From TrEMBL:
Gene3D superfamilies on file: NAD(P)-binding Rossmann-like Domain
The protein's name in its UniProt record: Oxidoreductase
Similarity comment text for this entry: Belongs to the short-chain dehydrogenases/reductases (SDR) family.
Recorded GO MF terms: oxidoreductase activity
């Protein structure tokens, strides 16, 4: 629940975020909210955090319950921004709102692509993409493209994409089934649709790192975390098991946030890699390491965004 998160996981020694700007998607609750709370309580916190949620009201409410450290002379500024990843129009409106609050350099240092949905009923985004693929991949791909100029103004920009070990459950050899990306993909189960979107996150980060080597880009898995993200299409048996066994086998958000924060700040991070908690590389699926599949996804995504005028 918001307001009950403990302050901060341990950051790597010597981590200094002074003067940095960080944008977090899906930060009204769960891992995104805890990321903001942990960054605020860090000994050397950033200058500004842009906290995004589907509506400005949700973002503002989340900020009101964040911890307010009093030990800093210049505390971090937290700015609410509206961002609905199911709508290209909403995404396209964000850069102008962001620009009004950036430092004189106009730079964004860290983009934490944390938002996501899981195991929801079949559906489409406002722009006609399968709802999980459209939200988890297409929305973040457009946001990244639009924010690339301000990221490139930073001295050492980073993008951290929240994926999942679930990407390994997408059957090898299926490719990405592009023919169903612009349908509700009703022939796939809710979890298969989710696994595809998480594989897309891994591949997008890998190809982003290759095409834009000046921006350190990685994907991460947080572990099994109690966040409330379990979707409505989750079988009742699994839902019941999570309720009973979750506290025993799943991480709290305070612990689950460690890997993405590590990826935001550590000097051990290798661009293009996929990391499991905490900082463990080399665990991506065979498809997740497929450069040809990564390029195919990138090119398909670029064609789609161009068709929408982006």
């Amino acid at each position: 629940m918001m307001g009950l998160c403990t302050p901060a996981p341990t950051f790597p020694p010597g981590t200094d975020l002074t003067g940095k700007s960080i944008l977090i998607t899906g930060a009204a609750s769960g891992l995104g909210y805890q990321s903001a709370a942990s960054l605020l309580s860090h000994d050397l916190p950033p200058a500004v955090i842009f906290l995004t949620a589907r509506t400005l009201a949700k973002a503002t409410t989340a900020i009101s319950s964040l911890p307010t450290p009093t030990q800093f002379t210049n505390p971090t500024k937290v700015v609410p921004l509206a961002l609905d990843l199911t709508s290209f129009a909403s995404i396209a409106a964000l850069p102008a709102s962001l620009a009004a609050h950036l430092s004189p350099s106009g730079a964004l240092d860290i983009l934490l692509l944390n938002a996501g949905i899981m195991a929801v009923p079949p559906g489409l985004t406002a722009d006609g993409y399968e709802i999980q693929f459209g939200t988890n991949h297409m929305g973040h791909a457009l946001l990244t493209k639009l924010l690339l100029p301000v990221l490139q103004r930073a001295p050492a920009p980073r993008i951290v994409v929240l994926s999942s070990a679930g990407h390994k459950a997408w059957p090898q050899g299926w490719g990405l089934k592009p023919d169903s990306m612009k349908t509700d993909a009703g022939d796939l189960s809710a979890y298969e649709r989710y696994f595809r979107s998480k594989l897309a996150n891994v591949l997008f980060a890998r190809e982003m790192a290759r095409r834009h080597p000046g921006v350190l880009t990685v994907s991460v898995h947080p572990g099994l975390v109690v966040t409330g993200i379990v979707g409505s299409e989750t079988p009742w048996v699994m839902t019941a098991a999570i309720k009973v066994l979750g506290p025993l086998v799943m991480k709290s958000v305070e612990d689950g946030v460690r890997n993405q924060l590590w990826a935001c700040v550590s000097d051990k991070v290798v661009s293009g890699e996929y990391y499991e908690p905490v900082g463990v590389a080399g665990k991506a699926s065979k498809d997740g390491k497929d450069d040809g599949l990564a390029a195919e996804l990138w090119e398909w995504t670029e064609r789609e965004l161009a068709a929408h005028g982006y």
